Amino acid sequence: MKNTPASGIALVLCAAVLWGTTGTAQSFAPPGLSPYLVGALRLAMAALFFALYLLLIRFPVRLGSPGLPWRWILLAGLCVAVYNLCFFAGVKASSVAVGTAVAIGSGPVWAGLLQFALSGRAPRAVWWWGTLLAVAGGSLMVVSGAQGVRITGLGIALCLAAGLSYAAYALINKRLVAQAAPALVTAGVFTVAALIAWPLAWALSAPAALGAGGWMVVGYLGIVATGVSYLLFSSGLQYISGATGVTLALGEPLTAFLLAIVVVGERPGLMALGGLGLVLAGLALVIRAELQRPPAATGN
């Protein structure tokens, strides 16, 4: 695969497809299992995956190397941990549908605003139109047919914080992969995130026995839906802007929507199908905007 914006777009979309399997996989987890514990376990599994991956490819890891941007790795790890905590807490305070729509939907908007604030270069108008269409469509897909929807100020604030944390992680990660190998920096980021998340999960969760089925679910979430997916995402960010990477992640609810039809047997309504059309149209506009960017602009 050539090192072009098209290859970066393909890698990030593949990551989004894997992220979209998270909800279906979690449906097989033991009932009553704390989401905080699941989040911490999948971060730990992802960190272990990256460590084994670096060993398998015989990557020359030198932890004391002055060339590694450890300050940014620590900050990115903090963002990932905060995202997990705020997202699960926000969903608990509001509802799954509202929390997911706000967290995932606000991420691209935060990314565009942060990119402008940090670089002074705002995304193009076509990018904003595509992002807004995709966000609106994703929100419709998430909330359509949802039951027990509730909205609280605390839940919305936490989910907005989750979206901000994710956008910040993506832009920091964009900076990191320009300085070091994606596998190395992602291993560092998720190790930091796991170390932060574990004490919080321990404090907020009751002890639970996972069982064989639970460990299989956690293993899939950590290795495939987190480890492999974020390796693809980090690799893709080498060739596209961070803001575009965050918007393309809206392929996640698209995948979850299709899996709900094929695996779970759900039958979507007109609102969900309309949301599907908006997501596809929005992503097409964002991809067009990214492919038309000058080569030097992908550094944003």
What does this structure look like?
The protein is built from twelve helices and no strands. With 300 residues, it is mainly α. The chain has one domain (5-57, 67-299). Helix 3 packs antiparallel against helix 4, helix 4 runs antiparallel to helix 7 (153-177) and helix 4 (70-93) crosses helix 8 (182-204). The protein starts with a helix and ends in a 9-residue tail after the last helix.
Give a concise summary.
The chain is mainly alpha-helical and 300 residues long.
N-to-C SSE string, H for helix and E for strand: HHHHHHHHHHHH
Strand content: under 5%
| Total of helices | 12
Distance between the termini: 22 Å
Question: How many domain modules?
Answer: 1
Task: Count every beta strand, where a strand is a DSSP E run of 2 or more residues.
Answer: 0
Unreliable spans are: none
Structural class: mainly alpha
C-alpha Rg, in Å? Answer: 18 Å
The profile of the biggest β sheet is: none
Overall shape: it is: globular
Percent helix, as a range, is over 70%
Average pLDDT figure: 83
